[in-house]
Input
Amino acid sequence: KAGVTQTPRYLIKTRGQQVTLSCSPISGHRSVSWYQQTPGQGLQFLFEYFSETQRNKGNFPGRFSGRQFSNSRSEMNVSTLELGDSALYLCASSFGLTGNPTNEKLFFGSGTQLSVL
Amino acid sequence: GEDVEQSLFLSVREGDSSVINCTYTDSSSTYLYWYKQEPGAGLQLLTYIFSNMDMKQDQRLTVLLNKKDKHLSLRIADTQTGDSAIYFCAETPPGSSASKIIFGSGTRLSIRP
Output
């Protein structure tokens, strides 16, 4: 079956703009999580959506928001972009039903590389 | 607190064993993971260990957990060029879903002939 699909693959924006990233999970997965990866801060958890509701949230400002649709696809939005928002944004999906990685293996997409100029 | 630390680089000769180390601070974490990231790709779960285990072996991979010292290691036997990647140690904080994972900074493994 198809893996986690993130679009677009690359994105260039300027400071002050906003951006929307998209993630299509593996069919049947209801949980979608977003991570930011930068050379300086590493991988940081942004938020998780399950059944269209935000279930977990990391420590990012309100400029970072997300949503999930009834088909489990998720979008992440960043408003008023700053230079420091340049990063690889990774999305991961899972069934989201239990905390056991035997049943809840997280599948990652290849990411969207965002550059803010 | 939540913090996972790893050394940044490791270079090994092809055919030798690689040992990647990690320390974590939250002793109540339930699961500890090793992820692999190849260039231009997302993360791939390699293996994980439940906190009440000391060791887990999966083909060429061996995970050792020392809960007293909060130390986790990944040993890759007979390291091959295809093992070149960044390896992330990670934990699930207590009370969090399996999706909220705290990652280390990653260890870049390079293989020399």
